[in-house]
Amino acid sequence: MTYTGLDLLNNPFLNKGTAFTKEERKTNRIEGLLPPFVQTLDQQVAQAYEQYGTKPTPLAKRMYLMDLFNENRTLFYKLFSEHVYDFMPVVYDPTIADTIENYSHFFLDPQNAAFLSIDDQDDMESALKNATGDRDIKLIVVTDGEGILGIGDWGLQGVDISVGKLMVYTAAAGVDPKSVLPVVLDAGTNNKELLNDDLYLGNHHERVTGDNYYAFVDKFVALAEDLFPDMYLHFEDFGRDNAANILNKYKDQILTFNDDIQGTGIITLAGILGALNISKEKFTDQVYMSFGAGTAGAGIAKRIFDAMVEEGLSEEEAKKHFYLVDKQGLLFDDTKDLTPEQKPFTRSRSEFANADELTNLEAAVKAVHPTILVGTSTQPGTFTESIIKEMAAHTARPIIFPLSNPTKLAEAKAEDLLKWTDGKALVATGIPVEPVEMNGVKYVIGQANNALVYPGLGLGAMAVNAKLLSDGMINKAAHSLGGIVDPTEAGAAVLPPVSKLDEFSMTVAMGVAQQAIEEKLTDVKDAKKAIDDIKWEPKY
Ligand SMILES: NC(=O)c1ccc[n+]([C@@H]2O[C@H](COP(=O)([O-])OP(=O)(O)OC[C@H]3O[C@@H](n4cnc5c(N)ncnc54)[C@H](O)[C@@H]3O)[C@@H](O)[C@H]2O)c1
Ligand SMILES: O=C(O)C[C@H](O)C(=O)O
Ligand SMILES: [Mn+2]
User: Locate the Malic enzyme NAD-binding domain: which residues (predicted)?
Assistant: First the structure.
């Protein structure tokens, strides 16, 4: 289809704005619709960055960038690619949480997303076709908005997380923005604030659950597979009751990925390996404690467990290294309301003289002496000074990752963790944090956010059009992030810096594509060529 006139200027995938040449303006019937001076992409970038600089807050900056995104994807991504480190916290987490909470009130543009309602399922096929037009979709990020970061149920407003995750795919790994589709499944919301808000743009009813909900998800997956057979399907921020069920249902059938379970598992494993590279301790000696054993917490535990088994431990032996703490305290095999994902990691009360007292994190840390403590609890400030000091009293280099997002929900601040442990803690956080200066050492804080890994993983899998996303490919991604940070430098980070996100995303993509070839999950033979062929760059 050829677009001309205003249709062309209003198409963000094709629009070049003031960079349309005189000749293009003539052939595309846009003469007179733009100021006469023809700009280069670099000039547009300079102008946009100048504007960006005038915006006073991260939220205002994000709104400006979204306008640019809505107008002209090439310009947006060229600008983003030149300022990845600065823009990540603005475009993505934590600022994205503000726009999700206010989505209906801020609404200006649907941003080429597909809005699929549980109440209009007969329209689902048309909706997907309308949203894509003549574009060939290779990547979908879908959410139902029930478990947005740690801020809970935001219903249809969660669509912003689908849009935001896709932005990072392109900025970090060069996924062609024309080939992506953000999707929200609107099954209702249990968020009273939204249900009582006349301006809320989603369905004004409680969440549909059970068979009807799963039939809705099923219908979407089947239609999307049918319409876009080469697609990589990324699930994001589903609720704890559904996320793992959905992954387990589809992972052996189609090329699909759950970011909160698998992406977070990969980046946390990579962070732990990075930390052990600094402390020179042995992986299989570690005692792992998860605080908040939900979608992410249990997903991470499973990934670390699998890695211990790969290191040669038997499953029975590996299991002894894990302790999960959730609302009920340390999880035992007889604890009530265990999720299926928690069950494999529960302990027996007979292991402890005071089992009945282990109902909170502090008691659990005292009883277990973990060497690794990972927070995915959504409970801010719960890694207290006394808990951290207790942990540090029993291990030389405690590995402590407060991963709950956004910033206001983090279990602890990196600075405090370093202060309380006299610089011994090996820390990574979910959100970006500035380096901490202490006792003449600059401690660089790694960001254990799945954004450091899902773009490369997805690009690698998409480039070779893998049949499935295997454990081998996932494991490869986790091991691809080593060797970038110098572990001998004082205050070294446990993970590579976000400023190099585009570089190491390629390392991850190569490893993953190569692994898919080795596992015969693709007919492609040359991983490098496949990645070069699919990779998009922002240029006219
Ligand atoms: N850094 C990352 O890449 C990353 C990735 C995924 C999730 N996260 C963060 O992890 C957090 C959890 O996300 P999720 O998707 O697993 O949510 P979830 O709702 O599935 O899990 C949260 C878990 O915390 C438990 N919990 C709640 N209050 C608690 C308390 N007082 N004590 C102990 N446990 C408690 C809940 O029972 C639940 O099991 C969020 O803040 C999210 O932003 C970070
Ligand atoms: O979105 C993020 O920043 C990471 C993660 O997927 C989360 O849910 O917190
Ligand atoms: Mn998430």
Answer: 261-517
Q: Is the CB of 262 under 6 A from ligand 2?
A: no
User: Which ligand minimizes its atom distance to the CA of 164?
Assistant: 2
Share of the chain above pLDDT 90, in %: 99
Is the confidence at residue 226, as pLDDT, over 90?
yes
Would you state the pLDDT for residue 433? 95
| 64 catalytic residue (yes or no) | no
In angstroms and rounded to an integer, the radius of gyration of the C-alpha atoms of the chain is: 23
If you write DSSP's letter for every residue of 443-499 in order, what string do you get?
EPPEE--GGGTHHHHHHHHHHTT-SS--HHHHHHHHHTTTTSS-TTSTT--SS--GG
Neighbouring residues of 327: CB distance < 8 A, sequence distance ≥ 6? none
Which residue pairs, CB below 8 angstroms and at least 24 apart, start in 254-258? Answer: 254/221, 254/225, 254/468, 255/231, 255/461, 255/465, 255/466, 255/467, 255/468, 255/469, 256/232, 256/469, 257/232, 257/233, 257/454, 257/457, 257/458, 257/461, 257/469, 258/234, 258/295, 258/299
Is the CB of residue 450 below 6 angstroms from any atom belonging to ligand 1? yes
Distance from C-alpha of 33 to C-alpha of 2, rounded to nearest angstrom: 18
Whether 165 sits among the annotated catalytic residues: the reply is: yes
Confidence of residue 483 (pLDDT cuts 50, 70, 90): confident
Any idea which ligand is nearest the CA of 147?
1
Q: Distance (Å, rounded) from C-alpha 46 to C-alpha 50?
A: 6
Residue 403 CB–ligand 1 contact under 6 Å: yes
% pLDDT > 70, the chain = 100
Distance 405 CA to ligand 2 centre (A): 6
**pTM value?**
0.98
Those residues with Cβ within 8 angstroms of residue 201's Cβ, 6 or more apart along the chain or in another chain? 103, 104, 107, 156, 157
Regarding the beta carbon of 342 and ligand 1, being less than 6 Å apart is answered no
Placement of tokens 């992406």 in the chain: 263
162 C-beta closer than 6 A to ligand 2: no
Residue 124 and residue 142: Cα distance in Å, rounded?
Answer: 14
Residue 445 Ramachandran class (φ > 0 left, ψ -120 to 50 alpha, else beta): beta
Work out which ligand 1 atom sits closest to the CA atom of 450. 3
Residue nearest atom 3 of ligand 1, based on CA coordinates: 449
385/366 Cα distance (integer angstroms) = 13
Residues with CB under 5 A from ligand 3 (ion): 237, 260
- Protein residue closest via CA to atom 8 of ligand 2: 149
Query: What is the tens place of the pLDDT at every residue in 12-36?
Result: 999 999 999 999 999 999 999 999 9
Which tokens is 212 given? 């009807």
**Which residues, in sequence order, are bridge partners of residue 204?**
none
Q: Which residue has the tokens 């543009």?
A: 109
